[in-house]
Amino acid sequence: MNDHAATTQHWINVARHTPLGLLCDLDGTLVPFASSPEEARPAAEVIALIEELASLPGVTLAVVSGRPKDWLEQFFPTSNVLLVAEHGAQRRGAGAWEQMSGLDAEPLEALGLELDRLAAAHAGALVERKATTVAIHYRNVPRGHRGALLVEIYGTVDRFCETHPSFERLEGRLVVEVRPSIVNKGSAVSWVRARAGADARIVAFGDDLTDEHMFVALGGTDEAVVVRYGDARPTAARWELEGSDEVHAVLHWLLGVRQEHTPPPAVLPREVHPQAPSSGDAAHDLVVISNRLPELRHVDGEDGRKKNVGGLVSALEPALRSRGGMWLGWSGRTVPDAQPRSAGTIEEDPAEAGGVQLASFDYKESWYRSYYGGFCNSTLWPLFHSFPSRVQIKDADWQAYVDVHEAFADATTKLAGPRAMLWAHDYHLLLFARAMRRRGHAGPIGHFLHIPFPSLDIFSMLPWAADMIDAMLDYDLLGFHTPGHVANFLACASALLPAKVADEVVQHRGRSCHVSAMPIGILPDTFQEPPEASAIEEVLGLMRSLGDAALVLGVDRLDYTKGIPERLNAFGRLLERKPEWRRRVSLVQVSVPSRADVPLYAEQRAMIESIVGRINGEFGEASWVPIRYLYRSYPQAQLAQLYRAARVGYVTPLRDGMNLVAKEYVAAQDPENPGVLLLSQFAGAAVEMRDAVLTNPYHADGMARDLDRALRMPYEERKARHVRLLATVQRSNAVTWAEGFLDALAACR
Ligand code: ADQ
Questions:
Q1: Mutual orientation of helices 564-577 and 599-619 as an angle, nearest 10°?
Q2: Whether residues 71 and 112 fall in one domain
């Protein structure tokens, strides 16, 4: 029997079973979503279908909803249909309503008033009161405003639940609800079974997280069917349908089977993808944590926003989507220190981050100064890039670093299940696993460091060096870009702690931490996509202005680690030593603004502008500008065109974890006429990209010679090097990197 036939037979057996119990959620399951709770009403045919099913001999049918009893009763007045209202707090069996015993909803009155005040300040928000719950709906709040409202809702609701521990917060679809913790839809399962008979086989249909309680309460021969709306969140259900129309079709078919004419099924529940992890509660099974969320670029679109398709989000999106994961980070906003912290706020806006659900919280102003500007960017960034003279060390910054980890851990605890897989990113979150372990998190926790890990002598400058390594060993997996970074970390672990290092596993305090080199990749094909005419126009204009001069291209975030002054000076040295290149070559340096409010970065910018001015003043002519300096960001399609037009990709950081520009440059080349990659030996990318022309950015004369060699490289050599470089870039990409990390993390346990 093939899979389809087996599924059909399975469902025929279920449908024919007597006694049969059917539990149907209302909103999102029997009724499609509408723009207000009032408009979401079951159609007359659906009511008739439910009534007919409920009146069949051997069938017990309950509509199980979070709605109040009066709402349900208006559609299902006859007692054939059992009703479960307010998630189980109220039930109608044989005609009479009963309330679950031991419920005291009085404290909700005060919460309702607070939520009223919030709703009054946010157009579209709506507070709904029921006998035992209060809910705030934000479906009609414009997307861009939901995040701010949610911060406030969670602040209010979490404060209430802290002072009233017998209540809990519940996430529905674009609604946050508070109800007594003893109430949930799971209680409907035993209640229905008591009415249908102990040997009943029960089928439960539901779409949202509140229905998961029903699913986990089912027995071994029962069936749970999750109703999806294009999502893939983890579920305890074995089966899935898409939208309420498919639910109606299945119920019709069930009716036919029970009436003995077994029509061919138009649609049957499909098995949930076996890889989707199952979770019995509202929590996510994978949470990615980073300082910044994927950036939203502001454009003049209809709603003023559009998603950013580049960077880490494209690497992680498939993994997050398939595992129903979520991404937690800083909102990008700060709040005065006196204001209470609001953490773990769900920004449910799938369209804005490539379909990835986001959660964010605000930083206190002092955290922004001392954690972000201080310990992250003035201590760890220069230290890890081996710029000891730029390192600032302050007790207050370290304290803020510890505090922000506590805030991240608090927020994560709210979002993640107790066994969820957690993946933290970069130097902002080195202590995160420790903070989570202290909260009892039992699931796997991994970390990837995007920047280099320094040698022991540099790392030891940090007064908290041993403590930091100790905290990092609470991770199950530490990923680095290169074997050199791994070796540095292992050397620090064995020198600073009584830890046992064997191969790439560190044993310490009875735990094992795996340490591994996993170089990040890009999505190379996206740099070969044919550009839209508008994308080329600007690049063509730039190329026209260069005339016949060959293009040497630098592209970086403006950062002192990228070696931009050194690169410019070496270019000046080339023009000085090899005058034959004057008028025949131009350097275009594109620098995307970065950390502009950190003083060192402002200085760096001024220094670059002065070097550009000096070289252009010294060598420039009326018809030729040696260096064009563009202090701006470009969309990827334009960057790809610039890369392709460049004879030399001039990628010369003083130190870099990896350097994606090097890979992007290779990916964008015309294979029939490729340019040459001139790459710093101190970029992590140099480990893999041995066919680049490797150069020492600290040695201006040497770099000028290497640039000369790159510009003169014969066609055959250029092509042969490019073929090998491209194979390297294609060997692993951003998505395989992310999947590889998560597989390795799972394998650690
Ligand atoms: P970065 O220091 O930001 O990343 P890099 O790897 O080069 O360095 O990535 C920069 C990204 O920004 C590239 O994707 C590039 O296309 C883009 N970019 C640069 N200039 C731009 C411009 N003017 N306009 C638009 N886009 C621009 C950190 C580490 C690196 C590590 C990455 C990933 O410092 O060593 O490679 O993370 O792990």
A1: 10
A2: no
Do residue 212 and residue 175 come from a single domain? no
| Mutational pocket test of ligand 1: of 659, 663, 665, 737, the residue with most ligand atoms within 8 Å of the beta carbon | 659
Q: Are strands 201-206 and 648-651 parallel, antiparallel or unpaired?
A: unpaired
Is the shortest distance between the CB of 745 and ligand 1 below 6 Å?
A: no
The separation between the first and the last C-alpha atoms of the chain, rounded to the nearest angstrom, is 37
Using most ligand atoms within 8 A of CB, pick from 555, 608, 636, 679 the residue to mutate for ligand 1. Answer: 555
Are residue 162 and residue 49 in the same domain, yes or no? no
Total of domains in the chain: 4
Look up the pTM and report it.
Answer: 0.66
Q: Is residue 741 part of a domain?
A: no
CB 686 within 8 Å of CB 697: no
- Per-residue pLDDT of 536-568, as tens digits, reads 888 888 888 898 999 999 999 999 999 999 999
Whole-number Å distance, alpha carbon 161 to ligand 1 midpoint, is 43
Residue 567 to residue 386: CA distance in whole angstroms: 19
**The one catalytic residue among 284, 385, 450, 485:** 450
Whose Cα sits closest to atom 16 in ligand 1? 661
pLDDT at 748 over 90: no
Mean of pLDDT over the chain: 89
Residue nearest to atom 8 of ligand 1 (CA): 659
Q: Specify whether 349 is located in the same domain as 444.
A: yes
Residues 510 and 546 placed together within one structural domain of the fold: no
746 occurs within a structural domain: no
Residue 743 is assigned to a structural domain of this protein: no
Instruction: Judge if 319 and 256 occupy the same domain.
Output: no
- Count of CB atoms within 10 A of residue 471's CB? 19
Closest CA to 207 of 184, 227, 188, 225: 227
What spacing in Å lies between the alpha carbon of 664 and ligand 1's midpoint?
A: 10
pLDDT tens digits, 324-356: 788 999 988 888 887 654 544 555 554 455 667
Q: Are residues 542 and 500 in the same domain?
A: no
Q: Is the pLDDT of residue 276 over 50?
A: no
- For residue 701, pLDDT over 80 is answered with yes
Q: Is 656 a catalytic residue?
A: yes
Q: What's the pLDDT tens digit per position in 242-271?
A: 999 999 999 999 999 999 887 888 899 998
Q: Is 745 inside a domain boundary?
A: no
Q: Which residues, at least 6 apart from 396, have a Cβ–Cβ distance to it below 8 Å?
A: 370, 374
Say how many C-beta atoms besides its own lie within 10 A of residue 503's C-beta: 8
The CATH code of the domain that includes 459 is 3.40.50.2000
Return the residue whose CA atom lies nearest to atom 14 of ligand 1: 660
Tell me which residue range forms the domain holding 557: 524-731
Q: Is 664 in the pocket of ligand 1 (CB under 6 A)?
A: yes
85/112 same-domain check = no
Query: Taking the alpha carbons of 601, 605, 608, 610 in that order, is the dihedral positive or negative?
Result: negative
- 19: preceding bond cis by omega (within 30 degrees): yes
Ligand 1 pocket, 250 CB below 6 A?
Answer: no
The two structure tokens encoding residue 494 = 């064995």
227 pLDDT more than 70: yes
Structure tokens given for 251: 């119920």
Give the model confidence (pLDDT) of 396-445 as tens digits: 999 999 999 999 999 999 888 878 899 999 999 999 999 999 988 888 99
Looking up residue 145, the CATH number of its domain turns out to be 3.30.70.1020
**Best residue for ligand 1 mutational test, from 658, 682, 729, 732 (most atoms within 8 Å of Cβ):** 658
Residue 308's pLDDT is: 39
Ligand 1 atom nearest the C-alpha of 448 is 38
